[in-house]
Write a structure and sequence with these properties.
Radius of gyration of chain B: 23 Å
Shape of chain A: globular
Oligomer: heterodimer
Distance between the termini of chain A: 46 Å
Largest sheet of chain A: none
Largest interface: A-B, 94 and 90 residues
Structural class of chain B: mainly alpha
Order of helices and strands of chain A: HHHHHHHHHHHHH
Order of helices and strands of chain B: HHHHHHHHHHHHHH
Distance between the termini of chain B: 30 Å
Strand content of chain B: under 5%
Strand content of chain A: under 5%
């Protein structure tokens, strides 16, 4: 065996566990999911007729799928800007020279590491219309109590609140790292020129932070399209009152593991995948506008 | 900006972030009568610490804890081992198809894992692995993210470290686990924490693979418990508290690596 070939063999041996596992549990299912989306299959019976594009036609005509699509897009459109803006605000504050910094940083990060299954139960209790903390606070402030969990108008608000709450620390920490990479000399030069804090923020911080913002934009958008657990812990098997919490992933879950309609489920999974893919490509096209520090 | 404002806004944001945890703790030590009182107090008039005992006894939480711990620990150990091996190959070895393979691996990170749920469920079920540890664990033994993190770290190490070991006649495995891993502590601690937390909090996969409470992990067990006890909020909050505690403790110990690791990996 030649030296080069032997080296290649050794390298592939090092990669073997990874390639096998990724092949079986990532690459194969990507293909398989696509194939199943053209069949009618309940997973239990042997019959598995090919139905062509029928599953796709069905879901696009299904009003529930429309609801899921609408809710998912609304979630993304509100969640992403809110979590990025609040995360940036938090990071800027944490970047000021203040006491107790590690304490604050830890506080913001705790929701991110704890399971939403546990903390979601707490939120369910906070949103309770009769004994919940939120209504108590509202009434103390002289405002009207709301039926947070049973009124479909609030569903999106509830799941966005939990999403922002959980991800704020993560976004803030990454922004913080970005802020700390900005050289202090820029600010010193701006000070000499007599720039206001707002000018410094708008002309130095924001542009130089754009690689970080861009990275977070892609990451939080992909995550947001997969919103599921908040709804599951708040509303259980139903997707909220009047399906007001129905999202794409929830739709896939219901079709697959509720109705055992694997064809519909895989078709909707593929639609979700395509949407995420198109969004990511579109955002990558944006990257030409990102300023990278020389 | 004035410091007072910085503190004020930070404290307000912290209240938003920590409020639910305070509320959870406070409710978990209240007797039944005080839980549903019209005027909630942060501290109970009578402490009811036995909520914890009752909650612990009314579902097999010891089992859920063990399952969560076992599954997360096994996944983490394998993820680090296989991940380090792959990262070493990509960072240090020349082989046919290296760049194509690496890009292909990175591309799989763009596929939402949930999209793979159904085919993977079918695979596991056709292996008769529903309700088994291997069904819960095996699909998650490697993660591309770990490989990526470690490769970046290995690329940053001086070449001499690798060359010295290789000149001494060490094979790649001896070099990797004898010399490289001990000096790569920050990156494998970070990877391990991220993997462990992810495995501990995994929900959807456990929900579909485990239909028997023998194989529930804490998150799924807790949701089931919550459906069972309904509005016994104090016990529910006690259970929620003891199930988030291990991760909060783990995070407090590892947070220096965790936050830096996430921040660093996020940028590059």
């Amino acid at each position: 065996m030649s030296f080069r070939l032997r080296r290649s063999v050794t390298a592939y041996l090092m990669l073997l566990p990874t390639l096998v596992l990724i092949g079986v549990f990532v690459v194969y299912p990507i293909v398989d999911s696509f194939v199943i989306s053209f069949y009618k299959w309940d997973m239990l019976s042997a019959s598995k007729p090919f139905v062509g594009l029928q599953n796709y036609i069905y879901i696009f005509e299904d009003p529930l799928f429309h609801t899921a699509l609408k809710n998912t897009v609304l979630y993304v459109v509100f969640f992403v800007p809110i979590v990025l803006a609040l995360g940036l605000l938090t990071a800027v504050l944490l970047n000021a020279k203040i006491r107790l910094l590690p304490l604050f940083r830890t506080a913001f990060f705790i929701p991110y590491v704890t399971s939403l299954a546990a903390t979601g139960i707490v939120w369910q209790w906070i949103f309770n219309d009769q004994f919940g903390l939120l209504n108590y606070l509202l009434e103390r402030a002289g405002l009207h109590a709301q039926d947070w969990l049973n009124d479909p108008r609030w569903t999106l608000f509830n799941i966005i609140t939990i999403g922002v709450w959980q991800n704020l620390g993560y976004v803030a920490v990454i922004f913080l790292a970005g802020l700390q990479n900005i050289s202090r000399e820029y600010y010193e030069a701006a000070d000499v020129d007599g720039a206001t804090p707002w000018q410094k923020f708008a002309r130095i911080t924001l542009p130089l932070l754009s690689p970080t913002t861009y990275f977070l934009l892609i990451l939080t958008t992909i995550e947001a399209f997969k919103v599921f657990l908040q709804i599951y812990v708040l509303y259980g098997e139903t997707a909220g009152p009047n399906n007001s919490g129905m999202t794409l992933l929830y739709y896939m879950f219901t079709k697959g593991f509720g109705d055992y309609r694997m064809g519909y489920a895989c078709a909707s999974a593929y639609v979700l995948f395509l949407i995420v893919f198109v969004f990511t490509l579109a955002q990558m096209a944006l990257s030409r506008r990102v300023h990278y520090e020389a | 900006m004035k410091k007072v404002w910085v503190y004020l806004v930070l404290i307000l944001l912290s209240l938003f972030v920590l409020g639910p945890f305070l509320w959870m703790l406070s409710t978990s030590v209240k007797p039944d009568a005080e839980v549903l009182s019209a005027v909630p107090h942060l501290f109970p008039e009578h402490w009811a610490l036995d909520n914890y005992v009752k909650a612990w006894a009314s579902a097999p939480f010891a089992r859920y804890f063990w399952n969560s711990f076992f599954i997360s620990a096994v996944e983490t150990v394998f993820d680090l081992t296989f991940g380090a091996m792959a990262a070493y190959a990509f960072a240090r070895m020349e082989f046919f198809g290296k760049n194509v393979l690496f890009v292909a691996l990175l591309a799989t990170m763009m596929v939402p894992g949930e999209v793979l749920l159904i085919p993977n469920y079918i695979t596991i079920s056709s292996l008769n692995w529903l309700n088994t540890y291997q069904g819960l664990i095996v699909p998650w033994l490697v993660s591309v993210f770990t490989i990526f993190l470690m490769r970046q770290f290995f690329l940053g190490l001086p070449r001499e470290v690798f060359e010295a070991a290789e000149l001494d006649g060490c094979g790649p495995l001896r070099t990797l686990f004898g010399i490289i891993m001990p000096i790569s502590k920050p990156i494998w601690i970070t990877s391990a924490l991220i993997k462990f937390v992810g495995a501990w909090n995994a929900f959807l996969w456990v929900l579909v693979i485990a239909n028997s409470s023998d194989y529930y992990t804490l998150p799924v067990g807790l949701i089931n418990f919550s459906t069972d006890v309904g509005t016994v909020y104090n016990q529910l909050m006690a259970a929620a508290t003891f199930s988030v505690l291990p991760l909060i403790v783990l995070f407090l110990f590892g947070q220096r690596y965790f936050i830096e690791g996430i921040a660093r990996s996020g940028i590059k």
